[in-house]
UniProtKB/TrEMBL annotation:
CDD domains noted in UniProt: ABC_NrtD_SsuB_transporters (cd03293)
Domain ABC transporter: 4-235
Origin species: Thermolongibacillus altinsuensis
Keywords, ordered alphabetically: ATP-binding, Nucleotide-binding, Transport
Single GO term (MF): ATP hydrolysis activity
Lineage of source species: Bacteria, Bacillati, Bacillota, Bacilli, Bacillales
Record's protein name: NitT/TauT family transport system ATP-binding protein
Amino acid sequence: MNVLAVEQISHTYFTKQAAVTALEHVSLTIEKGEFISFLGPSGCGKTTLLSIIAGLIQPTRGRILVEGKEMNTKQKVIGYMLQQDYLFPWKTIEENVTIGLNIMGINDYAKKEKALALLTEMGLSGVEKQYPYQLSGGMRQRAALVRTLATDPKILLLDEPFSALDYQTKLKLEDLVWKTLKQYNKTALLVTHDIGEAIAMSDRIFIFSAKPGRIVRTINVPETLRTHPPFAARQHVDFSSLFQVIWKELENIEQA
């Protein structure tokens, strides 16, 4: 069974002056453990679709199914990681990564210990009592990922989570996130403007048209790339050829 199904999603934003359609007739399915990326020009509705999947926005038309059941905001199945880490500056890292558990009323000692153990797996051993301002940007994003994983979501939504980082940190974090999600067999959806990032991390890539956003092409990343961690995939001979294919596709969309 698909873990996620997006069925004929359309969304229009209404203002006093106009109605702007951001998405039109978007449908896709995602299997458990898949890593999916959304690519397309700015304003094509990628983040809007992520917000609809998260239950933050109700679509004008269509529906979201999680494991065959219609999505509703009461379900605790979605984890959302953004470009900014949004750690609470007045709370310690330990308090930040367990805040989702506390909000959900989960007082399970084992789950809190697992969240703290994830900090060590992420190379953040010993920072539990520190505050966000004491950590680098990359360390803060790793802590934000631990916070997202702590509630054991079925699906992770990643909205350009590496774009604010320097390039070296970004590449290291791509590898770390990819390996962690594979280890825990998590399903993930990534919104990015970075073609290389999408290729290196994904199993499939959905390319969106300009506004209104529609899926115009689905790219199946070859096994020669998707079985390697992102940094190694970037070095593979098949990487540049696929990059060129996607680059030309996006150029055609912009020219159209």
